[in-house]
Design brief:
Blueprint: E1 5-12, H1 18-27, E2 34-39, E3 56-60, E4 66-70, H2 74-86, E5 94-98, H3 106-114, H4 116-121, E6 122-132, H5 136-139, H6 143-151, E7 154-158, H7 165-178, E8 184-186, E9 227-234, H8 240-254, E10 258-266, E11 272-279, E12 282-290, E13 299-306, H9 310-318
Length: 322
C-alpha cells in the first residue's frame, strides 16, 4: 500500500499573492514532484494557454511539477490525478490546491474527510493562508477573509516591504487574536522556504497543538473581528462523559461557527493524553502518549470560531473537572 499523498490547501484574499507563490512552486528547481490544482477563478492564471474547454487539463512542467487547471468540481480533479498517477502518465508525491480569493477553505478541507477513497489516497497536511500586508485592513473588514485566517495552520504575510514596522506589528497582533495557533511568516515575491509550506502536519491527531501549548500571547485589545481564538485551560482531570456531553452540545449548537479546534486533555483515571481536533462539525479523537511521571497534567483546548458565546463555553468547561 502506497503512502497517502500530503495535501496543502492554499487560501488567501484576492491579490494576496497566491498565484505568485504557485508560480514559484511550479517553476523553482526544488527537486520535489508537486502537483498544483489551480482553479480558473484565480486572479492571474499561471499558464493561461492551458485554459480551454476541457474540464480538467493536466500538464507536466520542466521541473517535474504537474499543473492541473480545473473547470469542474474538485473531487473529479482529485480522482483524475490519481488515475493518471496510477497509469504512470504523471508523477507527483505532493499536492497543493489553490482556493479562490473569495472562497471558504472549509469545503475543500472537508472533501478529504468525507470521501473514503480520497481519505485513503490523500492526507490533508495543512491550510496555508496568505495575507496582503498592504491591504489587510480592507480585506479583514470581510468575515470571509477573517475565516481564511481562522482556518490556517500557517499564515504567510506578503507585501511586507510596502508597510512600516508599526503597521506590520499591528497586523501581526490582529492575526494572533484571530488565530492563536498559526505561526506568522513573511513571504517575499512568492519565495519562501518550502519547509514552511509542506509537512505542516496541521491535521495530525497528536499532542502537538501546532505551537499550541506555547500559544502565541495576545495583547489585550477590543476585538474588531468576528473570528477569534478562545483558549481553555485547566489542571483538573476531566470527566470523559461530561466532556463528551459538552462537546456534543457545543457542536450541535455552534458547529458551523467552529472553524478549527484542537485539544490535549487530561482525563480522570487515564494515564494517556486524549487528543482531538476538528473542522466545523467534523472531528476526530484518539489516545496519545502517556503523561510523564511528575509532569503537570494540564488540559488545553483551542477554538478558532465565529462569534462564539465565550462566557457560556468557559462556564461549561469549568464544570468538566473532577
Amino acid at each position: 500500500m502506497t503512502s497517502p499523498i500530503p495535501v496543502t490547501i492554499l487560501s488567501g484574499f484576492l491579490g494576496a499573492g497566491k498565484t505568485t507563490l504557485l508560480r514559484y512552486l511550479l517553476k523553482a528547481e526544488h527537486g520535489l514532484k508537486i502537483a498544483v490544482i489551480e482553479n480558473e477563478f484565480s486572479d492571474a492564471g499561471i499558464d493561461t494557454q492551458l485554459l480551454g474547454d476541457e474540464p480538467v487539463q493536466v500538464m507536466t512542467l520542466a521541473n517535474g511539477c504537474v499543473c492541473c487547471t480545473i473547470h469542474t468540481d474538485l473531487t473529479k480533479a482529485l480522482f483524475l490525478l490519481l488515475e493518471r498517477l496510477d497509469n504512470g502518465e504523471i508523477a507527483f508525491d505532493r499536492l497543493v490546491i489553490e482556493c479562490t480569493g473569495l472562497a471558504d477553505p472549509a469545503p475543500v478541507a472537508q472533501t478529504f474527510f468525507i470521501d473514503e477513497e480520497l481519505r485513503e489516497r490523500y492526507l490533508l497536511d495543512g491550510i496555508i493562508t496568505l495575507v496582503d500586508a498592504a491591504h489587510a485592513d480592507v480585506h479583514l473588514s470581510q468575515t470571509i477573509a477573517q475565516a481564511q485566517i481562522g482556518f490556517a495552520d500557517r499564515l504567510l504575510v506578503s507585501k511586507r516591504d510596502l508597510v512600516d514596522d508599526a503597521t506590520f506589528d499591528a497586523l501581526s497582533e490582529r492575526l494572533t487574536r484571530i488565530n492563536r495557533r498559526a505561526p506568522i511568516r513573511v513571504v517575499e515575491h512568492g519565495k519562501i522556504d518550502l519547509a514552511e509550506l509542506l509537512d505542516v502536519r496541521g491535521f495530525n491527531l497528536n499532542a502537538d497543538l501546532g505551537g499550541g501549548l506555547s500559544l502565541r500571547p495576545v495583547q489585550p485589545a477590543a476585538s474588531i473581528d468576528r473570528i477569534s481564538s478562545l483558549v481553555l485551560r485547566t489542571d483538573k482531570p476531566l470527566d470523559i462523559d461530561s466532556l463528551s456531553a459538552f462537546m456534543n452540545e457545543l457542536l450541535e449548537e455552534h458547529g458551523k461557527q467552529l472553524l478549527r479546534y484542537k485539544g490535549v486533555l487530561s482525563i480522570a483515571g487515564e494515564d494517556r493524553r486524549l487528543v482531538f481536533q476538528g473542522v466545523l462539525k467534523l472531528y476526530g479523537f484518539d489516545w496519545d502518549t502517556e503523561w510523564a511521571e511528575g509532569e503537570a497534567r494540564e488540559s488545553v483546548m483551542v477554538f478558532i470560531a465565529d462569534d462564539l458565546p465565550e462566557a457560556k463555553i468557559r462556564e461549561g468547561f469549568a464544570r468538566l473537572g473532577v
